[in-house]
Automatic annotation (TrEMBL), chain A:
The chain crosses the membrane at residues 20-39, 51-70, 82-115, 127-151. Keywords: Membrane, Transmembrane, Transmembrane helix. The keyword Kinase does not apply. This is DUF1468 domain-containing protein. Residues 21-142 form the DUF1468 domain.
Automatic annotation (TrEMBL), chain B:
The keyword rRNA processing does not apply. Pfam families: TctA. Keywords: Membrane, Transmembrane, Transmembrane helix. The chain crosses the membrane at residues 20-48, 60-82, 109-135, 147-164, 170-188, 200-221, 261-284, 324-345, 357-381, 393-410, 416-445, 466-489. PANTHER family: TRICARBOXYLIC TRANSPORT PROTEIN (PTHR35342:SF5). Signal peptide: none annotated. It comes from the Bacteria. This is DUF112 domain-containing protein. InterPro entries: DUF112_TM. Residues 20-441 form the DUF112 domain. The keyword Secreted does not apply.
Length: 159, 504
């Protein structure tokens, strides 16, 4: 099972860095929201304008951010190793699908998605990925043919 | 009798071909999602939600609900065979299910969980049939101040009772509420937090957010923790090996009864949910048992209690969701979101404006649970084989379905880019240990909360004290204040203890 992580948490001036980051992010978000809501009409208490509710929430959020920072003083949270390769590969595969779907059609987009997403895992398995991509192409063809008019996705470029 | 008439109407809706089909698809996909380790109910529902847009509201709800409770049925399979919970709700199932599998009783354990799930589910449905109408009657007298107070209480309870830091939970609810406000303000027409983007004028799409937050980030999290296991365990799926003996029925009947009651009560409470219900039922069972030392080593009572409780809780969670419009968990929030997408305002009026939806959904629970029984007992062999699908085939397919779902909603590639953004956000939140579920609750309830807040002030002619002078609203807000106070108190105490520990 999961072993106890022996790595001590990183700290800045006694604050757990991870919790400090989380708290400050929340605090900043709250401040940004509160400031941004100043630009909306306030209305009156009887006829509350669009500024009031986000303003209140922003202030509460900022306070909660500070609370997270202070709570985090005793936290033992440790940042896990981020698998950058997987993160990049998966974002790239989704992005490729989004860029290709309108111009190049579903088949091309699927192949781009599957082969790029395969980079996330090691070892790279081109044969398996080819099978997955072909299966999904069959699936989407059936979907578009079967639900003509409901699923409107171009299969081929410029179709 | 009223209830009888209503149920008859419900069944007449639920046995229509389209509803039966929706129910079947829902529970089958749900079991599939539950069986697959690394794909939770939340990710599954967000992925499959676009599938229901073409259906009627009733069929959509029947199907989504089926996915939800189906996934809880299925979650136990991976728990028993791999010691890996397919979903968090079946974490407790591992305690005794896996030891049973190691003793060669995997078939029996799987059959027991299915039967226990069925019994727990049925108990909670009866509870819903009897308790939802009176609850609705109370809620119908509620005005805007009460609604606002109830929403606040529901959100606070849901975010503080879940695991992890309650302060972070509340913070994420607030972030969710704010995300819910993005877009054009209905009352004044002012565009809020759109920062000049036309795409955001309609607000943030629930489907897109959920797919990123639970679909994409879940894959990234799986790559971070990288425990992929596949099962090679042999399972004896003969009827004889699976069906519990008379003695086992006798041993487990008490546990199932307790599990049903506990699970249902916990399921109604916001925030507690199926996972906690299973855990509490298990510890109660251990305390009640004459042989507590057997627990954790393959005690069938422990397994039965946990499984009845988590399914009872899963069904009972629909009580506040459908009768009050207050979801207790992120999954329920997604279902409410689906209702909204179909143009139905969730709340106590649903039972009057859409009685066929309300009672049809309840009737479909009976049918769905029965289908699951049929689907799971004889077909266990197939589900076991599903565990053999390696993750390197699974995740590209999940990514494809995410793209398909996000894109097909309005044929706009921008939505896929938004999924990436929310996926990275969800992953970042996970790294910072910020819970994502409360955020979704906030997103769904945000617009309603603001509307009731404004309307309450309008009707009271700007008297902000209205929330405290109305007795029900004051009571609800007082409960919310108690929750916040106890949270602060317990976190301060924990802090003091931790500081004392480090000093020592």
């Amino acid at each position: 099972m999961t072993a106890e992580d022996p790595k001590p948490p990183h700290r800045i001036a006694g604050f757990n860095t991870l919790e400090l980051a989380a708290g400050l992010l929340i605090f900043l978000l709250g401040v940004v929201v509160a400031v941004e809501s100043l630009t909306y009409p306030f209305g009156t208490l009887r006829n509350v304008g669009p500024a009031i509710f986000p303003m209140l929430l922003g202030l509460i959020l900022a306070a909660l951010g500070l609370a997270v920072v202070f709570e985090g003083r005793v936290s033992l949270a440790v940042a896990p190793q981020v698998p950058w390769r997987a993160v990049l590969a998966i974002c790239a595969s989704l992005g490729a699908f989004a860029l290709l779907i309108d111009s190049a059609g579903a088949y091309v987009a699927i192949f781009a998605l599957i082969f790029l997403s395969g980079l996330a895992d090691r070892p790279y398995r081109p044969v398996t990925l080819l099978c997955v991509a072909l299966a999904l192409c069959v699936f989407i063809t059936a979907l578009v043919m079967g639900f003509r008019g409901i699923v409107n996705i171009d299969l081929l470029p410029g179709a | 009798m009223d209830l009888f008439d209503n149920m008859m109407m419900g069944f007449s809706v639920a046995v229509s071909w389209s509803s039966l089909w929706a129910c079947f698809i829902g529970v089958t996909l749900g079991t599939f999602i539950g069986v697959l380790p690394g794909v939770g109910a939340l990710a599954g529902i967000s992925l499959l939600m676009p599938l229901t847009f073409g259906q009627s509201a009733t069929d959509a709800m029947v199907m989504l609900a089926g996915i939800y409770y189906g996934s809880i049925y299925g979650g136990s399979t991976a728990a028993i065979l791999l010691n890996l919970p397919g979903s968090v709700t079946s974490a407790v199932t591992c305690f005794d299910g896996y030891p049973m599998a190691q003793k060669g009783e995997a078939g029996k354990a799987l059959a027991m969980t299915t039967l226990a799930s069925f019994i727990g589910g049925c108990f909670a449905i009866v509870l819903m049939m009897t308790f939802a109408p009176p609850l609705v009657a109370v809620a119908q007298s509620f005005g805007s101040p009460e609604y606002f107070a109830m929403t606040v209480l529901g959100l606070l309870a849901a975010s503080t009772l879940s695991q992890g830091s309650p302060v972070k939970g509340i913070a994420m609810v607030v972030v969710g509420l704010l995300l819910g406000l993005v877009g054009t303000d209905i009352q004044s027409g002012v565009a809020r937090f759109t920062f000049g983007s036309r795409e955001l004028l309609d607000g943030i799409s629930l489907v897109v957010l959920a797919m990123g937050l639970f679909g994409v980030s879940e894959i990234l999290i799986n790559f971070t923790s990288s425990v992929f296991a596949t099962s090679r365990q042999k399972v004896d799926t003969s009827w004889q090996a699976m069906w519990p003996t008379k003695r086992e029925w006798k041993d487990t009947s008490g546990s199932m009864a307790r599990g049903s009651v506990l699970g249902s009560i916990i399921g109604i409470l916001p925030g507690a949910g199926a996972a906690i219900a299973a855990f509490i039922a298990y510890s109660v069972e251990k305390r009640v048992s004459k042989t507590p030392e057997r627990f954790g080593k393959g005690a069938i009572e422990g397994l039965a209690a946990a499984e009845t409780a988590n399914n009872a809780a899963a069904q009972a969670a629909f009580i506040p969701t459908m009768s009050l419009g207050i979801p207790g968990s992120a999954t329920m929030a997604l279902l409410l979101g689906a209702l909204l997408i179909h143009g139905i305002q969730p709340g106590p009026l649903v039972i009057q404006t859409d009685p066929d939806l309300f009672w049809g959904l309840i009737a479909s629970f009976w049918i769905g649970n029965l289908m699951l029984l049929v689907l799971n007992l004889p077909l266990i062999g197939i589900w076991v084989r599903m565990l053999l699908i390696p993750y390197h085939i699974l995740y590209p397919c999940i990514l494809f379905f995410i793209c398909l779902g996000a894109y097909s909603a309005r044929n706009n590639p921008i939505d896929i880019f938004l999924v990436i953004v929310f996926g990275l956000m969800g992953y970042g939140m996970k790294l910072l240990q910020l819970p994502a579920a409360p955020l979704l609750l906030g997103l769904v309830l945000g617009p309603m909360a603001e509307e009731h807040f404004r309307r309450a002030l309008l009707l009271s002619r700007g008297d902000a004290m209205v929330f405290l002078t109305e007795p029900i609203s004051a009571g609800l807000l007082a409960t919310a204040a108690i929750i916040v106070a106890s949270t602060i108190w317990s976190s301060l105490r924990r802090r003091k203890r931790a500081l004392a520990d480090t000093a020592a």
